[in-house]
Predict the 3D structure of the following.
Amino acid sequence: MARIEVNHLKYRYPHTENLALNGVSFQIEPGEFIGIIGKNGSGKSTLCQAFTGLIPNFYRGAYGGNVKIGEINVRDVEVDELCQKVGIVFQNPFNQVTGSKLTVYDEIAFGLENLGLTRKEMIRRIDDALEQLDITKFRDRNPFDLSGGQMQRMAIASIIAMNPEIIILDEPTSQLDPQGSEEVFKAVQRLSQKGITIIMVEHKMEKIAAYSDRVMLLDEGKMIDFDTPQKIFSRDDLLEHGVLPPAFTRIGRGLGRKNAATGEYPVTLNEAKEALEGMAV
Amino acid sequence: MMGRLEIKDLHFSYTENEEILKGIDLVLDQQSTAIIGQNGAGKTTFVKLLKGLLQPTSGKIVYNGTDLSSMTVAQIAKHIGMVFQNPNDQIFKNSVIDEVMFGPMQVGMSKEEAKVHAMDALEMVGMEKKCKVNPYDLGLSERKLISIAAILAMDPEVIIFDEPTIAQDYAGKKCIGEIVEHLRNQGKLVLTIIHDMDFVAEHFDRAVVFAKGGVLLDGDPKQVFSRAEILEKAFLEQPNVTRLCHALGYEETFLTTDDFVEYKKGQ
Amino acid sequence: MKSISLYEEKNSTLNHLDSGCKMLYMVAAILVPALIGNKWANVAVIVLSIFLLTISKVLRKTIPVLSVSGIVILTIVIIQGMFRAGNTTVVLQLGPAAFYKEGLLYSLGIALNVFNILLAICVLIFTTKPSDMVENFIEKGFSPRLGYVFISIFQIIPQMMETMNTITDAQRSRGMETEGSLLVRIKAFLPLISPVVMSSLVDTKERAIALEVRGFNAKTKKTFLNERKVTTTDKIINLLLIAAVLASVAWRVKLWLG
């Protein structure tokens, strides 16, 4: 399994003046669930696209430093070669539907056909991906007839079928209703448990806190911090970086309730419950 | 003048065999009201009816004593404004100020009047300094604010938002929350379709839960969000603070972290 | 279903036939009567196409196609019937309008040709999944990109129509009139079309990236999930069709020589 290594990554979009990423360095171990947070324009989506080689290979622009997936330097390989190692899912499920297939089953096959897999291998992988995302029952539906949450899960299944070791999700639930988001989060969690490295950008801090092993805080193209959710959300300067901590952390902070052992504020419902239990009602 | 909408036994269907709205009775006045519910519950259809973009199959909507079906969409636009989900669906002018002046001039304001209203609206969303900029040179969250200003400048008595917080960060949500409260304090009727329950709990006076084309719950957010089982059946969640209180077994329902912290400190 | 594809799965004999076979039928149905150069050949093939459409349960779908082209044909019949150079024999007198035999026969020839071509095309597209057709082409070396554009249009246009509706709603909500006199419509054009263009550009870019990360530009040779089954029946039909074309070529050559 591949380790991700980012060294002094700098990037500027064509026809712009400011650096979208300004000297970012970190490592991600195989199988980690990483949450990326920060205000709009802080470089989150740019970083996501840098993992997949879309930056700089699709967008061009000025690029410095490097992104390594295992031994591969992202910049040196084509996007279609890398897509078998790193998959990416975007915000808008509609725009990820190819529009050239009439059923969910065929839609998932799209990427596999491009890779030239045998029919037998395709069927094995599609069946498996449908199962993992819990959408087997929609296999014969028209992709455009699905709900947002179902469509987004189909998009993830289409990526999973390509067997990547790493999946990047760029605000995958922001266009979905609560039920749809929950379906997507549960599905992603299952993939994470199977050992796939997950990197997710998300504005719902409660979800990030609940699912991530580590959280990366970005601001103005720089990495401010990269640590456990408890450490990140206990920072005093989060609001200055444009991030509101989870409700549970705000309550812990408001009442001065920390975890006695670690000295950190609670970040999830369960942690908050533990910290508050015993306080008089 | 204050806006008051009376909805009487409202039914709507696109096709004969599938009814989208199955008899809605509501009076909307004087409050900021959030309409929540799963996708497909009929929320969007409902607000389209309020804007006259669709006509009811039966029942009626009365705005300040006038049946909406006797007004054209353009006439309704003077009184009831709506901010669509995606700002890209409406922006077409080359400068922010022209974009924001478009609506007011369509509903009959003079150029000077429109300009005054447009500048006021831009100030309210904090974009007055960017009035000469091309909207397409702005980021999506700023374009969203432009699309809000474009409706506020028309000075309608009722303002409807469709998912205003989608893809907004903390600063964006805070700004939109302030706009909602400001409008409400001006005596406007503010309605929104929204999935973000924490935002509803923070900024709205009333929550109406739609499910399967009918109203499932209606009341102040405290009442509505205390009904965990019913919300669950409608595939909705409680706000995070409410969930925590629920998990701790508290009788009382809290909506915001501040309320909760205040309450605990007071003990 | 939000697809404007003309194909509908009816589980008919023609649905199960290989797409190549139906393409060949279309070519043969157009070529054979043209080569033979006899109106009765046209009539025979038209009858055959109608028969095929009937057993495939899609005859009704040809009505809009035929009625639109029927109007065009009718004007041709009227104009040629009345004014064609060389008109001499009056066959029908309607008040001041005289219809001539020569012009009518000439336009009948055009009509038969047009209907024959249309029906042959209908046989192909109403009974064949567009993706089957395109995959067949790609296998023969046709560009996968062009193939993609061709199939995706059927699904992406309805999506664009929906965006268009939302945009119309958004602008009407700002007090803009979209219905009424020509002037009103002209005024409404810019506020409607600019957002459509902008949002299509955004959507297209996002979709291009989504395709890219699914290996759309991979240099490996593409494979296909759906197996192309060319049965013995398909092969026999193909041979018969080719034989028919060859026979009519021979007939034509014989006419020239003789």
Q: What stands out?
A: The beta strands of chain C are 90-94, 97-100. Chain C has nine helices and two strands.
